[in-house]
Amino acid sequence: MATSVKNSFMPPNFVSNLNQVLKKRNNDEEDKSTDPSSSSVSSKPDHVDEENGSKPRILVINADGIESIGLTYLVQALVKEGLYNVNVCAPQLAKSVSGHSVTFGETVAVSSVKMNGATAYEVSGTPVDCVSLALSGALFSWSKPMLVVSGINRGSTCGHHMFYSGVIAGAREALISGVPSLSISLNWKKDQSQESDFKDAASLSVTIIKNAIKDVENGVFPKRCGLSIQIPTNPSTKKGFKVTKQSSWRSTLCWHATSTKRHPSAGYMSNQYGIGIQLAQLGRDASAAGAARRITTQKKNLEIESVGVAGKCGSDRAVKKYFRLEFVDKDLDEMDEDMDVKALENNFVAITPISSSSYIEPEIHTAAADWIASSFKGDQ
């Protein structure tokens, strides 16, 4: 059923629910301030900020890097609401296809970042590193936010792309640690999308986050699962929200032989962030330990540009080949309407439950479906 979408992306039932939550908070605060038996010891849960009254704490992470436009618009939108204590912990560079990898046995560098209205850090690691470090208590003075939001990712993470996705992995790591989480992605298309779509996606995301926070507070948010939220290419013209299942769809993985004259990741990086980020990555990766390791293992290399042209080499020479991976979209073929990628292509916001395991138990899916149906009543 088509939905008339306003600029605020906020249906009346969302406003009503939010006002009820705010009213309840105000009443609770007044009761506490007038209660003579109140002690000086705070009884607030760890995910509520002491300095900002009753503002719930949100941790925002992503996979596209601290400077990505999706993260920037999302944080700005959350700060503008004035309802949350917003904390950010994101990778220095793009790690969107890092999966659930962690940095083990190597030092991870953390630097503070200026981000108006939010406490922010950049981490020289993966999205999972960011979540794990933030929740460890070693970086922030707290260890448990009310909600972890991972995104907004540039490109969909439907189907088997969930297994490659760093933004999904960040949400799953929070779930493993016992914190409710959302992963948010925009179905970016090279010839159709523009940066303003991220602003629309952020506005839509805030509406979803409000509902999640309200229901986490009330104890009715789905247990033992997070939500993967796929926003269609044109967020302002979405048809509605649809609970979906993870499909088996994925792009075709194409490996191309290339030469050393072109940086192996240049094709991917140039589409995303440009030469400046490439140079920054090279500089950050060139640690003293890494440089020493390369010097001690240096060999005479033979450059080749395609498979099968190297021939035989002497024992004193090592053959080095260069390949570049590209994702090539393929047709959806015949697919059920309740599959994530199909709903997304039909211009719905596809919401798929994610679990700490690779299997979504039927009762978990049912609980998530009931919550989505209740929260987005009138928009489906």
Structural commentary:
With 380 residues, the chain is of the alpha/beta class. It has 2 domains: 44-247 and 334-375, Stationary-phase Survival Protein Sure Homolog, Chain: A (3-Layer(aba) Sandwich), CATH 3.40.1210.10; 252-307 and 314-328, no CATH class. The protein has helices at residues 12-34, 69-81, 127-136, 161-164, 166-176, 196-217, 266-272, 275-285, 288-296, 340-345, 362-375, and strands spanning 57-61, 85-91, 110-115, 118-123, 147-154, 181-186, 226-231, 241-243, 252-258, 301-303, 318-320, 322-328, 349-354. Strands 3-4-2-1-5-6-7-13-8 form a 9-stranded mixed beta sheet, sandwiched between helices. A two-stranded antiparallel ribbon has the order 9-12. A two-stranded parallel sheet has the order 10-11. Helix 3 runs parallel beside helix 5. The chain is globular.
